[in-house]
């Protein structure tokens, strides 16, 4: 098996910061877990970048490594069993993986904050929400208990929790799911970070609340001009909010594209499959499409392209050679900015 | 909350009556005669024994003896010891502070050492500190108290000469330290193991990940976010345990010659001193009930998800 580890250079989707360095850049990141059954390679060379005010959506099934990438950025991977054998995570050009623990701690929460999926289990059940919000100010800014509480109330107002003043001493279990997620968002926003990583922020919520929470998040992001990495498996959520999308499969990025182009013309069979499996009203009565098979076991990833056992287009080359992330071009060879596809047959997928 | 406490306090009344009655009946059912026992092997006129019994009210029917006992309680009259003639109330008043000092000392050792060891083991679950703690606590759990007591005496008094083997002055905390350690050993091992499993489990909780993601210093993550959640099961055990400690430790008090509740109870049982046994057992039951109520209330403070109505 020959492996094409190297990822071809892609033109940047947006011009980078004024300084030329993106806010956050993940370069050829590898993460593996050492378990009793052997080494599980969860992330195999992921590259992406986010600028201020930009939203990157990371899309993929469970187990594709999207959350692990986020945890590696936050520095909250369990190590051991986790290990980062190679790669760089650059925050404003500085590699966070080589920083001391204390330096990283100071970035966490203050510069890069994270919103977790299940707000009920992610909030401490025995501490009041006011305390948990106020803790950010007390630890990072040295505010007094009283001032921190006032700030916490302000934050709760910010994320539009009704009667914030009365509810500041309530505990997480006393809030509804949507309100709890707002508290998570408020906590992430507390110190007005440069970047927020939202790991499936709306998955645990019902649909009406999902929209409210996403709108709130998008609005606050615009207001503070933050970068946002939105991790999700919900294509509906992505379309409205994201600027660009990275689709992950089995620990690799298989396609990157600006959001609308991806929906219009997917350049990877996996993306195409994902888009086709969205139920559509105008196809009522016909059978729902599903990608056949299951995501691979990360301890035994198929040789070649990891998607080959589930792919309609798979040829012999797919079973032997790992495809690099090719730059995607128009039929006449004009480059499509920010587009890439890790498929040997991307041309056929997008144009044929 | 207030109603809950009131209900719990009212529940104590039937428990109190039930326990005293039960102990009364059991003492009556035991073979042997406390008055006859006073005279050992001497031959004595049965009329004299009958006179003493009549004087102490022991010739009355059982229900009447029980009634008289209950009626005496509100006036602080716990009856009299037959052998010594001392009021039982006085015996308790003398023994209780000794046991309380010993229990408190043991309790402090349990809390500090037990929770400390448990934290260390739980945070290093699966690595060598964990193995060491599990091994040591296993020894404490499996070796009986009297063996442990003699080992301590041999090592710390006879060999190292750090402290006296017997307690000569029950107000000397230094002398009480070794018995307290012996008394604490078993519970300390349980507390360490409980804390360990609780910490090891909560360490992986989502809220811990959040706490780290917030950029909190390690110290704060552990002391504020981890410890408080991990203490919930431990507090239950500690509550029951402080009751056990206060009930006196017959074996430990025996080994170290401490005249606390445990040794008084043992002597009274031996001499068939009904009123003393009833008094001591009732006291122990009340201590148990009060502490379990306190623990239940403390529970709600530790875990706001628990509410009492």
* Global structural class of chain B: mainly alpha
Give the termini distance of chain B in whole angstroms.
Answer: 6 Å
As a whole number of angstroms, the C-alpha radius of gyration of chain A is 21 Å
CATH superfamily of the largest domain in chain A: P-loop containing nucleotide triphosphate hydrolases
What is the number of helical segments of chain B per DSSP (H or I, 4+ residues)?
13
Shape of chain A: globular
Count of separate DSSP helical elements of chain A: 13
The topology string of helices and strands of chain B comes to HHHHHHHHHHHHH
Instruction: Quickly give the CATH architecture of the largest domain in chain A.
Output: 3-Layer(aba) Sandwich
CATH superfamily of the largest domain in chain B: MetI-like
Whole-number total of structural domains of chain A: 2
Mean pLDDT of chain A: 83
Low-confidence stretches of chain A: 1-18
GO cellular component, one term (chain B): plasma membrane
Transmembrane segments (chain B): 12-30, 102-125, 132-156, 176-194, 234-256, 276-302
Main location (chain B): membrane
Subcellular location (chain B): Cell membrane
